[in-house]
Protein: t-SNARE coiled-coil homology domain-containing protein
Amino acid sequence: MNRTADFRQLLRRFSGGAALPPPAEVPLSTFIRLAGDQQQRLTELQFALQGDSSDYAAAIQACQTQLKELESQAEDSTDLTPPPAWKPRDHLAHRRSLVSGLYEDLKDIASAVQRTAMSEQQHEAEVSSFFTAVPSASSTARRKPPPPPPLPPQDGVRPPDAEESERLEAEALALLAAYETDLDKIEETQAKVGELANMVSFISTKVVEQQDQIETIQELAEESTEYVEMAGKHLDRAVDNRSSYRAWLVCWFVGSALFLLVYDYLDARFSII
Structure:
């Protein structure tokens, strides 16, 4: 719903009744104008389904052709003046979504036309059954092949019922072919989406595995860093204790030598000869 007028009235009320400048008209691109025209045609065709018109096959085929042309122009942005924060990828995604929505509307209309044609054929078959003789038991037990179509009159004018049935049959076949083509495209798209989903899940699994390996390597690196720091501390302590160890060793040798000299002197002096 467009609430621009209400918003402008609210601004006029808060601005003390001052006149607001008219809204700036933004020029539409060729793609948007074609998409708007196509949406209008689809809307008119959808409204025409409620009437007595039955010639929809050509209109649906024309709409499908125009949608293909519109889809081919989705990547053409030469007639645009890009804003400062313009992102081509988002703009292209928006155009493709718009074309996809138009295809969905056309598919709904084709399905509705097909249902209408089938209901009309069923109604005609029911009406014609009232004017045919009731088949006997032998005829129902063994069905005969359908009779050939009636021959045209001698003057070359075809009966109206035959022309109507042939036209309806041709329209039904055209709609059925278009519907089957759309179903094939949908199935192909679904298959591709499934393949992409499998690839994404596989890639995500590999990413999780790589993340676990990175965390394990980081933990091992932290432990190795701690061990290296501890070894450095032990080396520093050994360097600090080296001088004191040498002093204790020299003192031990000097003390031992003095003890031996004193012991030898006492032994030589007080020994009994």
About this structure: The chain has six helices and no strands. Residues 133-160 have pLDDT under 50 and may be disordered. Residues 29-130+175-271 form one domain.
